[in-house]
């Protein structure tokens, strides 16, 4: 298996113009807060890597409603620019139309700290929230989703390509949102 190195242009991270300076992050607005009792109050987001046949990855971003556990928006791409999480959020907004004050929670990845993403969140009247650095427990709801999603959809396999992935992901999320029972919701 070939070794992946930083010199490989396919995997090299974009240069950080603020190299050496901390990137400003949003506070964690979920710490100590109970799970919302109504949908469209808190959405949690994350990105995962999906294996591609023949090597390489696809990148899937989701926004999950913390109350209903439904996936309210998603996008999958062959790269993971800021637009990946923004497009997933835009899709959620066109379907859900949440009230002003929605909390949009994520990790501290560069997609979520990007100026364009922060501007989108502010324009919506939403409040950005971020997990503490390196603490996956702060985003446990979406981490739990990833665990089930990968076990149920991939079962150790991979996707032939982007279009096949979009179709399979679309079907699985429709099943997950409409039919799958959730232990956190009393198997409703």
Report on the structure:
- With about 190 residues, this protein is an alpha/beta fold.
- The chain has one domain (about 45-180): Ribonuclease H-like superfamily/Ribonuclease H (Nucleotidyltransferase, domain 5, 2-Layer Sandwich), CATH 3.30.420.10.
- The protein contains five helices and five strands.
- It has a five-stranded mixed sheet, sandwiched between helices.
- A hairpin with a 5-residue loop joins strand 2 and strand 3.
- The model is unreliable at about 1-15 (pLDDT under 50).
Quick rundown:
This is IS3 family transposase. The protein has 188 residues and is of the alpha/beta class.
Strand order in the sheet with the most strands: 3-2-1-4-5
What is the fold named in CATH at topology level? Nucleotidyltransferase, domain 5
Alpha plus pi helix count: 5
Overall mean pLDDT? 85
SS-based structural class? Answer: alpha/beta
The description of the largest β-sheet is: 5 strands, mixed
What is the total number of structural domains? 1
User: What's the gyration radius in Å?
Assistant: 17 Å
Element order: H for helix, E for strand = EEEHEHHEHH
User: Percentage of helical residues?
Assistant: 25-40%
| General form | globular
Q: Can you identify the CATH superfamily?
A: Ribonuclease H-like superfamily/Ribonuclease H
Which second-level CATH architecture applies?
Answer: 2-Layer Sandwich
Q: In the CATH hierarchy, what is the class? A: Alpha Beta
Number of E strands: 5
Poorly predicted runs of 5 or more residues? 1-16
β-strand percent reads 15-25%
């Amino acid at each position: 298996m070939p070794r992946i190195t930083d010199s490989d242009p396919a995997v090299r991270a974009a240069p950080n113009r603020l190299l050496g300076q901390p990137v400003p992050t949003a506070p964690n607005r979920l710490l100590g807060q109970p799970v919302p009792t109504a949908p469209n109050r808190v959405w949690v987001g994350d990105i995962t890597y999906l294996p591609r046949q023949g090597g390489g990855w696809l990148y899937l971003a989701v926004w999950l409603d913390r109350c209903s556990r439904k996936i309210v928006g998603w996008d999958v791409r062959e790269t993971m620019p800021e637009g990946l999480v923004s497009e997933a959020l835009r899709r959620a907004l066109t379907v859900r139309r949440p009230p002003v004050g929605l909390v949009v929670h994520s990790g501290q990845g560069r997609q979520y700290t990007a100026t364009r993403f922060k501007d989108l969140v502010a324009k919506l009247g939403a409040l950005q929230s971020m997990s503490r650095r390196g603490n996956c427990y702060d985003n446990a709801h979406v981490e739990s989703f990833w665990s089930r999603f990968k076990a149920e959809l991939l079962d150790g396999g991979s996707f032939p390509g982007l279009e096949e992935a979009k179709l399979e992901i679309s079907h699985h999320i429709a099943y997950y949102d409409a039919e799958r029972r959730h232990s956190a919701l009393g198997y409703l």
